[in-house]
Write a structure and sequence with these properties.
TIM Barrel, single chain, alpha/beta, 10-stranded mixed β-sheet, 828 residues, Elongation Factor Tu (Ef-tu), domain 3, 25 helices, globular, 8-stranded parallel β-barrel
């Protein structure tokens, strides 16, 4: 299995190389899902790729954000440069860009980002069919799920995260940071709302139910650590093990990479190898929010770190007492050294933190205090007896990591040299690495008898071994021929330089990219970017509504919705729809049956029992898909296929690609603003959301079950009896709901309402305007549809209705305040 390490800057890159990474993933200055990392400019990218290739390592470049229409020319030129620079692969999220690369740069290797939310066999097969060579799977999969995907899709490599931070939401499905703070995770600028504090309470009386001892960071996952499960992952067919951490310091990259390298190397010799607990302890000491096996093992009860969203460190002891001068005595259960960083967890208030500059044991200054001893140290804050003390900065571990990051710490390529020297002939220098690459050069001058100071092994090693500005390091030197000869030193130096250059080229020749003809590239790019032909605009936009229950369907039909999308995941009801219910619904609405369109769920894991496709039977002529996994099935079934916004359609090229495949209607990303929408041009097959409550997060982990319900197998289903909200530190209230598979949803605290902007939206001529009605009562949903229906009819008739009055009426039936979402602000 490949060990893939992160690099947010050059120091982290060297740390990964020196500590055993087989490949490194890194980002450029743009289009990277970690825009806050240092990242690499064009010159550094080329240098990193060459540096890695000389050492037989690979470099994958992240271009894993959604791409705006206006960015396509620039991003394709960037990818053109990356291919010419020899990047081993690019990691992509945007389907329009993926299609562009396959068309314009067909030989560039593509890895699908975890942001594409690939979580089952059909999703993996779909991307394989698009020419994707590797798929970074969703982090929410179990070992059985991964095995099932591997068995079904052999042609594409599978990559999984094995260490580092987890997201609470499925990657690629999170709008929390975007909607609340304007910083989009899909554009590489996540503000990490899952690391913020929240309170959980019931609706409508706002009675708090969060248990204080469980902590206030209700959405903060513990860190992933799968170092003990590498044999199982190898057996499951995983090709690459990915360490998360482009935002982490280089020392973190060094320590984590080295630990996983050691285990992988040991498994080569002993497939039953089990890591020493000390190895995991090193990982804890460099950074942790507690460790978790994530979703790999079923019923993991330690997924969250609700008491602290940042580094916990390791427990090293408890406070004995503290005097008025803040001199604190601590009974140690672990070693503490000068330079270490400590933090004391107190019951209330700010946790005092300190770097150990001076400490005493038994009244004597010491450089290190050991387990069982009582250490005296002065703190800056008040603590109390029995408070727990944690080490968050391990000076010895960091120093060791820094030593491993030196350029000469194992990163130089060992070479051997042979010298052949005979009187009257040119000196021949042969230089070879340990992989069989071998070059030979000769001096221009001929060897002559030396009057004094003939060449010897010491002189030749000094001259040939001057490799400081090269990636090489001279090891063995063999001299063949006479020993009383002389060749000018300048000639020997010149031969050495030529040998180094030749060896560099020989090592790199198999790894260098085949140059792309710029004329061919420009021609293909211009052809791809050519604006599509306009379709026939709708005479009037359809009014559509997305709901979750049969009662809501009936209200939508009765109050003027042209289309009703019925979510199949059982959201809110916590029960799947049965065939008998679907049959009864269609039987009672024979005339309107074509107006009802089922919506397949975003997530359907290999281990899920309920078959959504089977449940649809042959009752429907249309279906809306919400994940890439269902696209080919829907099209091949002959169903009219619509695509939901969870596919992250952010540009006209993704829209065009779906249209070419046969998708009839596409709901664009709610992260687009009015200016970006206008830049699409033709919206004849586009749906825009105008009203309702947007899903901000969908999680495999149910917060309600975790906090209130016990284990998943024995959950007492608190979600059934009443509704719940989480409240952030600013007082915003976010409704939370579960579905029939116990997946967890967080909705926006404010309801989207664009009724005052209908004239501007209708002027763009979309195919349909949509109400998100999942959280509405059937009665309020019916009233909202009536108001939008009436407003649309009046506008289509040329009237100028008082839309502010409509907004007031909508406000009277809504439980939250209104927002215009991103339509007038967009995202960073």
């Amino acid at each position: 299995m490949e060990l893939l390490a992160p690099a947010g800057n050059w120091d982290s890159f060297i740390a990964a190389i020196n500590n055993g990474a087989d490949a490194i993933y890194l980002g450029g200055q743009l289009y990277s899902a970690r825009q806050s990392a240092g990242n690499f400019d064009s010159k550094q990218l080329r240098e990193a790729i060459e540096y890695a290739h000389l050492r037989d390592r690979k470099v994958y470049v992240t271009v894993n954000t959604l791409i705006d229409n206006n960015e396509f020319t620039e991003v394709l030129d960037y990818l053109f440069e990356l291919q010419n620079a020899g990047a081993d692969a690019v990691i992509l999220q945007d389907m329009g860009l993926l299609n562009a690369v396959r068309t314009v740069l067909p030989s560039l290797r593509i890895h699908a980002s975890t942001q594409m939310t690939i979580h089952n066999q059909d999703g993996a097969a779909f991307l394989r069919n698009q020419g994707v060579k590797r798929i970074v799977l969703a982090r929410e999969l179990s070992l059985a799920d991964i095995t099932a995907i591997r068995s079904a899709v052999n042609e594409a490599e599978l990559e999984i995260f094995v260490h580092g931070a987890l997201c609470y939401c499925y990657s690629g499905q999170c709008l929390f940071s975007s909607m609340v703070g304007g910083r989009s995770g899909n554009r590489g600028r996540c503000a990490q709302p899952c690391r913020m504090p929240y309170e959980l309470y019931t609706s409508p009386d706002q009675h708090r139910v969060m248990l204080p001892e469980q902590g206030k960071y209700l959405l903060s996952p513990a860190d992933l650590c799968l170092i003990e499960f590498l044999p199982e992952l190898q057996k499951a067919g995983v090709a690459s093990l990915k360490i998360e951490g482009r935002m982490k310091r280089p020392e973190y990259v060094a320590v984590v990479t080295k630990a996983y390298r050691k285990v992988l190397d040991s498994l080569q010799d002993d497939p039953a190898f089990e890591p020493d607990p000390a190895l995991k302890d090193r990982l804890l000491r460099i950074f942790n929010r507690n460790f978790s096996s994530g979703y790999l093992i079923a019923d993991n009860t330690e997924l969250l770190s609700t008491k602290r969203p940042n580094n916990r460190g390791v427990f090293v002891g408890r406070v004995v007492d503290q005097n008025r001068e803040m001199l604190t005595r601590i009974k140690l259960s672990d070693t503490v050294s000068l330079g270490d960083g400590l933090v004391v967890w107190v019951g209330q208030g700010q946790a005092p933190a300190s770097i150990v500059r001076e400490m005493k044991v038994a009244g004597q200054n010491v450089g290190e205090a050991c387990s069982g001893e009582i250490m005296e140290i002065k703190l800056d804050g008040r603590v109390f007896a029995n408070d727990r003390v944690f080490k968050t900065h391990d000076e010895k571990l960091l120093s060791e990591a820094q030593q491993s990051m030196r350029v000469d710490a194992g990163s130089r390529i060992p070479v051997d040299a042979e010298v052949y020297i005979s009187a009257g002939q040119a000196l021949r220098l042969v230089m070879a690495d340990r992989k069989g690459n071998r070059v030979e050069v000769a001096t221009h001058a001929l060897a002559q008898l030396a009057d004094q100071h003939p060449l010897n092994e010491e002189i030749l090693r000094q001259k040939i071994g001057r490799l400081g500005n090269t990636p090489f390091e001279l090891k063995n030197l063999n001299i063949n021929g006479d020993r009383d000869l002389l060749v000018p030193f300048s000639d020997i130096n010149d031969a050495r330089r030529r040998a180094v250059d030749s060896l560099l080229q020989k090592i790199l020749q198999d790894k260098q990219a085949v140059p792309i003809d710029p004329m061919v590239y420009w021609s293909e790019k211009d052809r791809f970017l050519k604006p599509p032909q306009s379709g026939e605009p709708m005479q009037k936009p359809l009014l559509t509504v997305l709901v979750s229950s049969i009662g809501q369907v009936e209200q939508a039909l009765a109050n003027g919705a042209d289309r009703i999308y019925l979510g199949m995941e059982g959201l809110g009801a916590r029960r799947h729809l049965q065939k008998s219910q679907i049959n009864e619904l269609l039987k009672l609405n024979l005339v309107n049956a074509e107006r009802i369109i089922p919506v397949l769920p975003r997530i359907h894991q290999p281990g899920d029992d309920y078959s959504y496709r089977e449940m649809l039977g042959d009752h429907f002529g249309s279906v809306m898909i919400a994940s890439w996994a269902d696209l080919e099935w829907a099209l091949q079934s002959g169903l009219e296929t619509l695509a939901d916004y969870s596919l992250n359609i952010f540009n006209r090229y993704t829209l065009r690609y779906l249209s070419q495949l046969g998708v009839s209607s596409v709901c664009l990303s709610p992260e687009l603003n009015m200016e970006q929408l206008a830049n699409f041009g033709d919206l004849h097959n586009v749906e825009l959301i105008v009203h309702g409550d947007l899903i901000l997060m969908q999680s495999q982990y149910c917060l309600l079950g975790g906090v209130l319900g016990g284990s998943k197998k024995n959950c007492n289903a608190p979600c059934v009896s009443q509704g719940y909200y989480i409240k952030d530190s600013k007082g915003y209230e976010f409704p939370v709901v579960t579905d029939a598979d116990c997946r967890f949803y967080i909705f926006n605290s404010r309801t989207l309402c664009m009724i005052e902007d209908l004239p501007r939206m209708m002027a763009m001529a979309p195919a349909s305007l949509r109400i998100e009605g999942r959280l509405m009562t059937a009665e309020n949903l019916g009233a909202a549809i009536q108001l939008y229906r009436q407003a649309l009819n009046e506008l289509l008739q040329g009237a100028k209705p008082e839309l502010s009055i409509y907004k007031q009426e909508l406000s009277s039936i809504n439980n939250s305040s209104f927002t215009k979402g991103h339509y007038y602000r967009g995202v960073l």
